[in-house]
Design a protein that fits this description.
9 helices; 8 strands; four-stranded parallel β-sheet
């Protein structure tokens, strides 16, 4: 096991750096990473205090700092300490600058400004939370995406993830004993996507859910035959309605959401082609 101190310095929230570091570390095994987050670094005094900590716990330094003086001070000190330092966004910003013929604005946290996209994302999150688990069907036409599937097929976490990407999402459970409202089948605006999974995986998830609630892990909810019948019931609905289906058995929430976004983009592109024809 290799032990690594990872220092993440940002003049904003550090969210971008955290995602970059997570993506990079996912490519390596046998690494014990100790992350040190240093957000809102906007003065040399603040940087100097951080550099003392870095010197005591040497490791890789990754940063997003737009202030040139602070950045040069960090790079100079890391060089003196013999530590590698990486400016995470430089290659992307330089490529965009050359392509667009513009200089970068060098404003800390500009991606977090309260623009129209920010408020649209907040609205999407509020809508998605309010329309979880089949609630308020009279508003479903306002959704961008509707996810359907049996209980514990990742509808809610996928909905929340998509909401954070700016999509209004409702999710509708498919229950054999209680079919969804007929209005679900006449919606025009939303993209409706069916989520399915393998019976064994679904039983495992449901059993873990029951245990977390201190309930008996052996009920009809996890009976193999009933679970198979539930999934078949859902697949028949998906097929009858012609809805696209995503198998979430071996997909992470992020992977499922990416597939749904691709479906939404393809649908939007086809509608634009029809309008232009």
């Amino acid at each position: 096991m290799i032990r690594l101190h990872l220092h993440l310095l940002s003049d904003s929230t550090g969210e971008t750096l955290e995602n970059i570091a997570k993506a990079g570390l996912a490519q390596f095994e046998g690494v014990e990473t100790i992350k040190h987050f240093w957000p809102m670094v906007r003065s040399q005094g603040h940087l100097d205090r951080i550099l003392l900590e870095i010197a005591q716990r040497p490791g890789l330094v990754i940063f997003t700092l737009v202030n040139n003086d602070i950045r040069k001070r960090l790079e100079s000190r890391c060089h003196a300490l013999g530590l590698p330092s990486v400016s995470a966004l430089d290659p992307v910003i330089e490529a965009l600058s050359q392509l667009l013929g513009q200089e970068a604005l060098a404003r800390p946290g500009r991606q977090h400004m309260l623009d129209a996209a920010y408020f649209a994302r907040v609205e999407a999150i509020q809508y998605t939370i309010a329309h979880d688990d089949g609630l308020i069907p009279e508003d479903w036409e306002e959704a961008d995406i509707i996810l359907t599937g049996v209980s514990r097929s990742s509808k809610t976490p996928t909905s929340i993830y998509l909401a954070n990407r700016g999509y209004k999402v409702a999710n509708v459970p498919l229950v054999v004993e209680s079919p969804p409202p007929p209005s679900l089948y006449s919606l025009v605006h939303p993209l409706i996507v069916g989520l399915t999974t393998s019976p064994d995986r679904l039983i495992q998830i449901r059993r873990n859910r029951l245990l977390s609630l201190n309930q008996s892990p052996e009920t009809a909810y996890v009976d193999h035959e009933k679970v198979v019948a539930e999934l078949a019931f859902a697949r028949r609905i998906f097929s009858d309605q012609g809805w696209p289906v995503i198998d979430v058995t071996r997909r992470s929430i992020e992977e499922t959401a990416a597939a749904i976004i691709n479906l939404a983009n393809d649908r939007a592109a086809k509608r634009d082609q029809v309008k232009d024809a």
